[in-house]
Amino acid sequence: MYKVLIVDDESIVRIAMKTMIPWEANHFQLLGTAENGRAAMAVIQEEEPDIVITDLKMPEMDGLELIQNIKERAHRCRIIVLSNYGEYEMVREAMKLGAEDYLLKVTLQSDDLLELMRTVSERIEKERERERENVQLRVALKEKESRTRNELWKEWLTDRDAAQNEAAWVKKAERAGIGQHLKQCAMLHITVDRYEQAITAGKIKDRHLLRFSIQNFVSDVLSEYKHYEWIELNHKDFVVLLAEDGYTRALIPTLARHIQKTLHMYLNVNVTVVYTDAFSAFPNWRGEWQRCHHTGELVFYMEDSESLEDIPCLQAEEMEAVQRETSESKAMTSAKMVECGSGGDWATLTASVDYLLDEAKINRMPPNELKRLAVDVMREMRLDMSLENEQLLARMQQSESCYQLRDNWYRAISALAEARNNDLARQRPEIRDAILFMKRNYQHKITLGMIASEVKMNESYLSRLFKQETGLNMMQYLTDIRMEKAKVLLKDPQAKVKEVAAIVGIEDPFYFNRLFRKTFGESPSHFKEKMSRNSIVPVE
């Protein structure tokens, strides 16, 4: 519907215009009539019509004055003038002022009026379509600029190549028009705590909308600050670079707390805000982000009652040192856990889980590294990879806190214990005893006769029965036990191949090499070197 206002000082003309065409049937909403320009302006101010049909000669305010007022006040209505013979100069002046067209009162027919109304409404629609397209284009350009800015900042903070080629990054930033006002900056690293829980229990369930809402609320908190950059690292991690602009470092903790309270109050979302305690120059921002990022990760180890202030903000170099110092103890602990799992010592295995998680918290092990280690340990113990168990391991990897990881790890151990017990229940007692004997004595020389004597059975019959139930001959089974144990021991950075061979009951290191390569497709030394490389986790 296009809104229409009729303006004329003659009541008979106003009545005739109102009834000349079926307005609504042709998608026009007749707002009413006015007897002069002054009365018309009051309606225009209130209703914002799309089309004004006005007489030129009227008391108080004539048509030309009305058109001038409309244009001066930037009303967007289209104007059609009504004229009589002899008013040519006034019509020409009206067209100069911006009228769309004119109609002669004395010759006016309903078809002429309807045709002109349709022509004007088509012009309005085309203008609106152009405006919609322009708005969409401006929005798309703004979004593209925003994405470009965000990707550049994200690249600088998290991409090592960008840090190593600072000059190239600065050129790209200059082309994008970012960073000129950020000479000295403080940094706030915002992380949504327990993200999956926040999506489930928070006020907003849509992930995209949650990111958008967090940005809007933080922008409101920062509204009094002239210069800052908002950087979205992923769906739950955000960075604010706050230019100094005369603000003191004492304001930064207050600002961080304000952000936390605002997001909790309006979105029912808990966030960790890690902040730098001073303003620093551009070359230091990547290092500052590393400090904030690592500190934020340590929330993984916190109970709900703990506060962020209990955990210090570490320098990146300190974090690397902690990781190097703990790599050996991690290898030893995981080896012990695999041995417990293989031997069915579930009580010691769960106690080892508690010990490892406590040590990880004390040594500030990066949570993702800890979760990878937990999953690797379970895979080393040959947890049956059914769909249910794969889901168990996935939940371990996705744990959002140390306490979730502990619970998920316990569940995986229970599943492993249940599977092992089911396997044992299906085996004959003599086969179970034979396997148990090999697991307990693999480090010594073992013969088929020794195993047969242990289970009190004829060697030939035992061999045939063992192959029937396990699919392997006993010596191959013993070799597999030794190789799996050797694989665990070789993860220790201090272990020597020759010593590991002796520990698993193989005195000849050359024979050990051949068996290891046959079992795993690579030499012990190559495997050890690979594990050593993987144990050094780069700081991101």
TrEMBL record:
What sequence ranges are listed for the domain Response regulatory? Answer: 3-120
Q: Which domain of life is it from?
A: Bacteria
4-aspartylphosphate modification sites are 55
Q: Where are the transmembrane segments?
A: none
Q: Name one Pfam family in it.
A: HTH_18
Chief location of this protein within or outside the cell: cytoplasm
Q: HTH araC/xylS-type domain location, by residue?
A: 432-530
Any keyword Cytoplasm? yes
Q: Which UniProt keywords apply?
A: Cytoplasm, DNA-binding, Phosphoprotein, Transcription, Transcription regulation, Two-component regulatory system
- Localization in the cell: Cytoplasm
Matching PANTHER family? HISTIDINE KINASE-RELATED, TRANSCRIPTIONAL REGULATORY PROTEIN HPTR
Identification of the protein by name: Response regulator
Q: Provide the species name.
A: Paenibacillus profundus
